[in-house]
Amino acid sequence: MGNKVPEVTAFFWLVKVLSTGLGEAASDALVRRVGPIVVALVAIAFVVALRAQLRADRYVAWRYWSTVGLVAVFGTMAADVPHALGIPVWATSLVSLLAVAAVFVAWYRSEGTVSFRSITTRRREGFYWTAVISTFALGTAVGDLTAESWRLGNLVSGLVFYALIAVPFVAHRRFGLGAIPAFWIAYVLTRPLGASFADWMGGPTSRNGLGIDTALVAGLWALAIALVLGYLAITRNDALTRAKNPNAPAT
């Protein structure tokens, strides 16, 4: 099969950050309005979307990003469970870090690479989506750690992660960090980056938020994603390089 993931461009990172913000705001809006039953419904939607993505034989933008978006929504809902059980954020951060490490070790031992540009077999795609889910969990825990445990607040946390996400890019271009570790480090950071700003927009003014209704916040982030995906559907900028060399390795 052809490569099942999009070309990693500025548009990729833009949609990825927007999807995490959408997931945070949509989760808050749905749980508040529908109640706990929505978690089961979103879980079913996520399983259906992931199954469709895994069964496909090529990359299609709306299908891929729908799956990522549902990872964000369901993952945010699931991340509230440890909080409800009273598990400290540092513990969930540590467990998530160990889970991510285990996924990448297993992936590398099986395939000899954890490249994000060689998702051309079912097994590699299985590892890829397991990594996506586990890195999302790690990013969620880290974001909660800075905003809540360290009491930085959502806006300051967002600005911190905005600065931090530049580190792997600079390290890759200036100091020789490989593209693969740079990609996955940045990928983890997209979650707390987008979610922090979404929480800031939807947070009450008494806690230095903007006080925007969470449903409206989710709608605004969804609109932004739709506009970018519409542009990509026309230009195909997320697939051009792969079309020339579908098995090009990461450097």
Write structural notes for this entry:
- The model is unreliable at 242-251 (pLDDT under 50).
- It is built from ten helices and no strands.
- It has 251 residues and is mainly α.
Provide a concise account of the structure shown.
Helix content is 76%, strand content 0%.
Mean pLDDT: 89
What is Rg?
18 Å
- The total beta strand count reads 0
Question: Span from first to last CA?
Answer: 22 Å
Order of helices and strands: HHHHHHHHHH
Q: What class, by secondary structure content?
A: mainly alpha
How much strand? under 5%
| Global morphology | globular
Low-confidence stretches: 242-251
Number of continuous helical runs: 10
Give helix % range.
over 70%
Major beta sheet summary: none
How are the SSEs ordered, and which strands pair?
Elements: H1 10-34, H2 37-55, H3 61-84, H4 89-111, H5 122-149, H6 153-164, H7 166-175, H8 179-202, H9 214-235, H10 240-244
Helix pairs in contact: 1-3, 1-8, 1-9, 2-3, 3-5, 4-5, 5-6, 5-8, 6-8, 7-8
Core attributes:
251 residues, 0% strand, mainly alpha, disordered C terminus
